[in-house]
Amino acid sequence: MRITEATFTPLRLTLARPLKTAKGTYTTREGFIVRLTDEDGHVGQGEAMPLPEFGTEPLATTHQVLRDWLGALKGQSLDDSIEGIEATLAPSPGDASRSLGAKIRPLEPEEHVPAAQHGLELALLDLLAQRKGVPLCWLLAEEARPEVLVNALLSAEAPEELAQEAKDAVAEGFQTLKLKVAGRTLDADEARVRAVRAAVGPGVRLRLDANGGWSEPEANRALDRLGWYELELVEQPTPAEDLQALWRVQRRAPCIIAADETLASPAAVRALLTMDLGGGPVVGAVVLKPMVLGGLLPSMVVALRAARLGMHAYVTSSLDGVVARAGAAHLASALPSGELASGLAVGRLFADEPRDHPYKPERGLLRLHDVPGLGLTPELTGVP
Ligand SMILES: O=C(O)CCC(=O)c1ccccc1C(=O)O
Ligand SMILES: [Mg+2]
């Protein structure tokens, strides 16, 4: 494919109400939409929405890197293949397959710019899938599922409000609910978890996300008390860097422990996928955030290695816009297992979510349509 136009446009998202996590409160998100045009007039779209507290580069770096890469890419050709895309994005020299790609980046393998990489990779994948006339997920797996289970992320603070939000989500058809915990007293968290479980009854899957906000003893105490409320899993109970603590917490936990913030560092991802502390994998599941892992292809690699080690994997956005969530949905549909719901139902939390687009969950499911690429026109993204 020959890239005739390569542009990027700012994208700013506002949450309808602040989302409190153990590590801070989100009110707005800022990033860029990437658009690539090929010689046949197809337009591929990607999104770069950095989250520096999750290990991505800061927004100013995303801006600078996209400007350089897209400036270099314009007018160049790359092979119509996944290998062509990988070679274009590869930081390391000396790879024979590099000739398949376009030359866009100075060869500095230590440079860690996952959000910019995600934005460009997604635009190239969208373009490639459109050129081949297939949904993007078909490029990632032969047996991509047409539907992806998604969880509702509850954002209220007070137990009574949370209970109502949980009931509404279940009435809408969600069968998995997620609740932020930690950064409050355990009594307060127990009241919130109890209110949700009481509101929805048994059977509905309930997952918690501590965002690394508990020490190991606090996590054990919390799981001893909260395990009673029938938990599906708990994301990142303890700090990101301490894999041994995660391993120990998983060993005595009443549910799956999922590593999330841990995957923000490439060194920790390697350790998680290679370390043998005995008795199976470090944790029961990994959370794949494509924006943090540098794209759908690196995320797929982590998922396949995790599956081989006996770990579940599921996908979440990092509170991204429609384009990144669309890419993440295609990744989720291509994972080895679709058992655990993906965190891709956050559109309802944004004040400025585009009104109509094909990635709105219905009855707790995202349906992927048989259309080329992501199937998102520039108008549908809400960005001119
Ligand atoms: O999983 C979801 O439903 C939404 C994703 C989410 O919670 C999140 C969003 C932004 C940053 C971090 C996280 C997280 O999972 O920890
Ligand atoms: Mg999390």
CATH class of the largest domain: Alpha Beta
Task: Give the distance, in angstroms, between the N- and C-terminal Cα atoms.
Answer: 24 Å
| Subunit arrangement of the protein | single chain
CATH topology of the largest domain: TIM Barrel
Biggest β-sheet strands, sense, barrel = 7 strands, parallel
Order of SSEs: EEEHHHHEEHEHEHEHEHEHHEHE
User: Count the helices. How many?
Assistant: 12
Q: Which hetero compounds are present in the coordinates? A: 2-succinylbenzoate, magnesium ion
- According to CATH, the homologous superfamily of the largest domain is Enolase-like C-terminal domain
Shape: globular
- Residue stretches low in confidence (pLDDT < 50, at least 5 long) are none
Q: How much helix is in the residues? A: 25-40%
Structural class: alpha/beta
Protein name: o-succinylbenzoate synthase
Active site: 180, 289
Binding site for Mg(2+): 209, 235, 260
Family: Belongs to the mandelate racemase/muconate lactonizing enzyme family. MenC type 1 subfamily.
Word description of this protein:
- The protein is 35% helix and 19% strand.
- The strands form three sheets. It has a seven-stranded parallel sheet with strand order 5-6-7-8-9-10-11. Strands 1-2-3 form a three-stranded antiparallel sheet.
- The longest helix is centred in the first third of the chain and has 19 residues.
- The chain folds into two domains: 131 residues, Enolase-like, domain 1 (2-Layer Sandwich); 235 residues, Alpha-Beta Barrel (TIM Barrel).
- The model has no long low-confidence stretch (mean pLDDT 95).
- The protein is of the alpha/beta class and 384 residues long.
- 50% of the residues are buried.
- The radius of gyration is 20 Å and the shape is globular.
- The structure holds 2-succinylbenzoate and magnesium ion.
- 2-succinylbenzoate binds next to loops.
- The site of 2-succinylbenzoate (OSB) has 13 residues, from loops.
- It catalyses: (1R,6R)-6-hydroxy-2-succinyl-cyclohexa-2,4-diene-1-carboxylate = 2-succinylbenzoate + H2O.
- GO terms for molecular function: magnesium ion binding; O-succinylbenzoate synthase activity.
- Converts 2-succinyl-6-hydroxy-2,4-cyclohexadiene-1-carboxylate (SHCHC) to 2-succinylbenzoate (OSB).
- Its EC number is 4.2.1.113.
- It is an enzyme of class 4 (lyase).
